[in-house]
Write a structure and sequence with these properties.
Blueprint: E1 8-10, E2 16-25, E3 32-39, E4 45-50, E5 54-58, E6 61-64, E7 82-84, E8 101-104, H1 106-110, H2 119-122, E9 147-149, E10 155-164, E11 171-178, E12 184-189, E13 193-196, E14 200-203, H3 207-215
């Protein structure tokens, strides 16, 4: 299941829970073993979801076989245990970002596919807050009509709608309306947003990358249909 970066992810109830930021490949079969789901603008969170919890990939969207609240039981993305795809591996057709593909180390590969441990069985809550950790930065309030600019300061459109993960309340994507005479809607993954001010949103990519989002070019940032 090779899905492009930025592909919209919904839970089993059809609620937005994030976008695909990476794919995890099995070191032996080199097939997709898990997807990394990203959500949030200020307090970004990436969750590794095993392929056996993915129900389907249809219409440029990934549908999970779990509810948004169940994502809290899955492990957060752990960079040291997941390495970039080796240089000697051929790139999958239609993709050009090697960093999009990750391979687990020997220990994690031995436990693929990843299994969710129920708190009822382990006796440990799925998430234990660290009292010494800094407080999570709240997500920005983004109003409809807010202007959106690329990383060069070029205005590309205005906000049409904002999707939130119902469990974490993190932003998953922003729908941007572009054009005046022939209006188009482009969905921007939360991870592409660089900053949010009262009157503007600035992206971390240029206008050309935004056009790729609109067209859904494989191997680039990806696209998702409007909500």
């Amino acid at each position: 299941m090779l899905v492009p970066p930025g592909t919209h992810v919904r839970d089993r109830e059809g609620k937005s829970v994030g976008t695909v930021s990476r794919l995890v490949l099995h070191p032996e079969s080199r097939e997709v073993a898990a997807i990394v789901v990203q959500q949030g603008v200020f307090d970004r969170r990436e969750v590794v979801v095993p392929l056996n919890k993915v129900a389907s990939f249809e219409g440029d969207e990934v549908l999970l076989d779990l509810r948004a609240s169940e994502l809290a039981g899955f492990g957060l993305f752990n960079a040291p245990s997941l390495k970039e795809m080796p240089d000697h591996w051929p790139m999958p057709a239609g993709f050009d970002q090697r960093s999009f593909f990750l391979v687990p180390d020997a220990w994690h590969a031995a436990v693929l596919p990843f299994q969710l441990t129920s708190p009822a069985v382990s006796g440990t809550p799925a998430y234990i807050p660290d009292p010494d950790a800094p407080q999570e930065r709240p997500e920005p309030a983004i109003a409809a009509g807010t202007s959106v600019y690329d990383n060069a300061g070029q205005r590309i459109g205005e906000v049409e709608a904002v999707d939130l993960d119902p469990a974490s309340r993190r932003i998953t994507r922003v729908v941007v309306r572009r054009g005046k005479l022939f209006r188009r809607e482009t969905t921007i993954p939360a991870g592409v947003i660089a900053s949010v001010a009262d009157d503007r949103i600035t992206l971390g990519v240029g206008a050309d990358e935004v056009k790729k989002l609109e067209r859904g070019v494989p191997g680039q940032l990806g696209t998702a249909p409007a909500a």
